[in-house]
Amino acid sequence: MKKVLLVGSPNSGKSMLFNRMTGMNQRVANFPGITVSTHAGMCRDNHELEVIDFPGVYSLQYISGEEEVAVQAFNNALEAPVGEIAAVVCVVDATRLEKGLFFALQVREACRAAGHPMVIASNLTDILSRHGMAIDANGLSTEVSVPVVPVSARSGDGVLALVALLGGEMPAPTSLLAKNEIAVDQNRLRNLAEDLTQAFGPKGDYLLQSHNKADQFFLNTFTGGISFLLIMFLLFQSIFTWASPLMDGVETLIGATAEAVLPWFDDGWTRDFVADALFGGLGSFLVFVPQIFILTMVVGMMEDSGYLARAAVICHRPLRSFGLTGKSFVPMLSGVACAIPGIYAARTIESPRRRWLTYLAIPLMPCSARLPVYGLLIAAFIPDQTVLGGWVGLQGLAMLFIYLFGIVAGLLVVAVVSRFDDADKDDTPFVLEMPPYRTPGFLTLVRNAWERSGDFIKRAGPVIFWVSLVVWVLGYMPNYGQDLGESWLGYAGRLIEPIFAPLGLDWKYGVAILASFLAREVFVGTLGTLFGIEDSEENIGSLADQITASGLGLASGVAVVVFFALASQCISTLATLRRESRSWRLPAQLFVGYGVMAYVVAYLCYLLVGAVV
Amino acid sequence: MINSAPSLWQMSRGKSCVVTGFDESIRANIRMRLEELGFHKGAVVTCSTSPSLGAPKLYQVANSVYSLEQPIAELVQIQSLQA
Fold this sequence. Notes:
Strand content of chain A: 5-15%
CATH topology of the domain at 2-204 in chain A: Rossmann fold
Number of strands of chain B: 6
CATH superfamily of chain B: Ferrous iron transport protein A (FeoA)
Shape of chain A: elongated
CATH topology of chain B: SH3 type barrels
Structural class of chain B: alpha+beta
Number of domains of chain B: 1
Strand content of chain B: 35-45%
Strand order of the largest sheet of chain B: 1-6-2-3-4-5
Number of strands of chain A: 9
CATH superfamily of the domain at 2-204 in chain A: P-loop containing nucleotide triphosphate hydrolases
Largest sheet of chain B: 6 strands, antiparallel
Structural class of chain A: alpha/beta
Distance between the termini of chain B: 7 Å
Distance between the termini of chain A: 77 Å
Number of helices of chain B: 2
Oligomer: heterodimer
CATH architecture of chain B: Roll
Largest sheet of chain A: 6 strands, mixed
Largest interface: A-B, 43 and 31 residues
């Protein structure tokens, strides 16, 4: 089986061509911390060909560690013996030929040196022909001594011709691009790319004109601002409102499955394990999958349409002052619903450093899992009264302050960390190519969202399972679930009581905080169990009364809120961070660092409120 | 007619210029990437969009449009072109 190496610049439609050639559905991109993200698949129209897709790069001269890995992987592949590689296919965007040709000429030189055949796939020709434009493929091919095949990965036009060409024998490019020269430097390649584009590229700038008009609207101070707010509103709606019925559906499905399965077990530890650890622990994690699915679809829509790049431009300046980038906005916004989809959305940030800083901010965004905790403590300590003529409710105001506290804390932490870090060292500058506006393909969006959701379950699920198991065993033993207070978890609560005592919290709160490390909202349920209230999630009022009756002061309540706002005790988030960064280092640092910060700030708030009240 | 203008960042929307060089403080890898993208000496660049509030500007070079933030655009030296 011969190999076909697929290379190209970002946004050239390379991954779409890979999917078209192999029938696969890989989402290919440069991701942070990943050694190299290559994908391989058998060509569905010629089983003698294995197509290998390399991450998109602008140049074979890398400027970042991430690009270096991708380029080195390609260079290593070129070291294969002559005859093993059917051809290197360099995908260029025909609508932006000059940029693609510069890279293609670099690849041509690499192929010439290695002795491998090469083909230029001129992609997106369907868009050109829709506007009455075309490239002179034959003329270009003659000039660079490499076959040039016009294709449309989207429609499939020309792909069979490309595969047929790859199935035959092709010579490697041998002639020099510039006459009377032993080697061709980068400046000459660039000038040649310009000349070739002038001679054989599409004539007319209709596409750029239409994009510029759209940019005048979407980046205008007034219309751009309004459309940005509207789109962000839709994004929020998708996370909170549209996903809600699906989340309820999953919850109902899990509940129904539990009801159907549990009667198979006799009363005892196995039944308790299945009910509490499997359906309780894993179930609370699976409920978030629809949210990830919807969010991935909406963010994918923004990405594919070309709007995400414009949103990044709008947000860049304010976020830059905190050390972030405009592309950090969507992940942070997503993190307000749930940190997990936010962390996934951070993949769109090319700069490893800015992406890392964004990872630091996301766990501090006030996610929906914190909402029950805040709701409980607000109900316990803030009177249900209104001010300003009944327009402003004190409890709602308190919730707003708590949310703002989390967002501001996230930005401040990132600002401080970025000051201590070497800001410019090896960082990728904010030079963002504006992709053309395109109509997103609905089926592609659904497929990507489906795969991302499945990936989320496969990667984070096992971690959640084992943590659920450990927490369940600690809470169940040694008295077989009879009394949580006398369980190992209860003992642990008493053991750590001195830690939380300075915040005015007794062992029950310690246990609830320990249990919340599985999922933050477990705090409410655990407290409900400890106070002897069933269905505490639905009986927030009763539990709030119990909390105030137990003597917990306002200062302690504020301390708990601050602790939950800052601590990064969500196992799902940590597992996802580990999956994205391919290391436990970052999640471990966040867990410890934010835990210490949460405790210290909570203690200071406890002292401050105690002194004032 | 060519007038001297210090940097790409100072261009307003719709104006074109020729890249004349780079500030000495620019990092070699950033300069290389800008040149690869088309911002090389002698290239004609048009500022296609200039958002307010200091947001990165959009520059059209050849058949592509790029957004450059202020610290980067200020390192590209230009001469403005007037019709």
